[in-house]
Write a structure and sequence with these properties.
The chain is α+β, with helices and mostly antiparallel strands. The chain has two domains: 76 residues, 3-Layer(aba) Sandwich (Glutaredoxin); 108 residues, Up-down Bundle (Glutathione S-transferase Yfyf (Class Pi), Chain A, domain 2), CATH 1.20.1050. The protein is 46% helix and 7% strand. Strands 2-1-3-4 form a four-stranded mixed beta sheet, covered by helices on one side. The longest helix has 27 residues. The structure holds glutathione (GSH). Glutathione binds next to loops.
């Protein structure tokens, strides 16, 4: 079975895309559009909830970015991007992997309110303000962790930087990263990596983020 990643440009599947490039693994990229629901018969046999990413590899299908990250680092340990049970930073690695989705839940709510709900009357300004505040708070955790180091773990770049890295990149569309200098530098550092460069949508691609920054309704 061909290794295949199901992806939507600028969505959370960017985590798995960056990781596959970082690992130097060959794969086929299948791009899905968010203009139509992914919850359809042809895709549901891969992803029952109709979400991206889905990874096909070695005869199995895996969904959930965190699970895909764990699967890839365990299946291809020679790439050195996991931190095994015997590594002193193993549990930090696991914690960051899950923290990517703590950031991701606020990001997803803001994407729904600013982007998916196109008509202003569909949106809740209260939810938008509250989730922006909560997103800023979790970015503060990343800011502290990055004090004096380039990546989340003191031992250097690892797969969790692809998961958290996408979350903080996405967060920068709703929270000004200038107030978090370590996070700002971290995003720039990640985006300078050749693997992350390859995740940038090509010209003409359907973008999730059509703007660089989304202001709150009342500024
Ligand atoms: N926790 C899942 C979330 C996957 C997810 O919700 N992906 C979004 C894109 S960011 C999606 O496929 N949305 C399509 C939809 O909700 O219809 C993961 O980390 O893989």
């Amino acid at each position: 079975m061909t290794r295949r990643l199901h992806h939507g440009w600028q969505s959370r599947s960017t985590r798995s895309l960056a990781l596959l490039y970082e690992m130097g693994l060959e794969f086929e990229l299948v791009i899905h559009s968010f203009r139509r629901s992914l919850y359809n018969d042809s895709y549901r046999h891969l992803s029952p909830a109709g979400r991206v990413p889905a990874l096909e590899d070695r005869g199995r299908v895996i969904v959930e970015t965190g699970a895909i990250t764990e699967y890839l680092v365990v299946t291809y340990p020679e790439c050195g991007l996991g931190r095994g049970l015997d590594h002193p930073e193993h549990w930090d690695w696991v914690q960051w992997l899950h923290f990517a989705e703590t950031i991701g839940q606020h990001l997803a709510t803001l994407v729904q309110h600013h982007i998916v709900m196109r008509e202003p009357h569909m949106r809740s300004a209260t939810v938008m303000r509250y989730e922006t505040m909560r997103l800023a708070r979790v970015l503060g955790v990343v800011e502290e962790a990055l004090e004096g180091q380039e990546y989340l773990l003191a031992s250097g770049f690892s797969a969790v930087d692809t998961n958290v890295g996408y979350s903080v990149f996405g967060a920068g569309h709703f929270v000004r990263l200038e107030q978090f200098p370590n996070v700002r530098a971290y995003v720039d550092r990640l985006m300078a990596r050749p693997a992350f460069q390859k995740t940038v949508p090509p010209a003409g691609a359907e973008l999730l983020f059509e703007r660089d920054f989304y202001e709150l309704p009342d500024g």
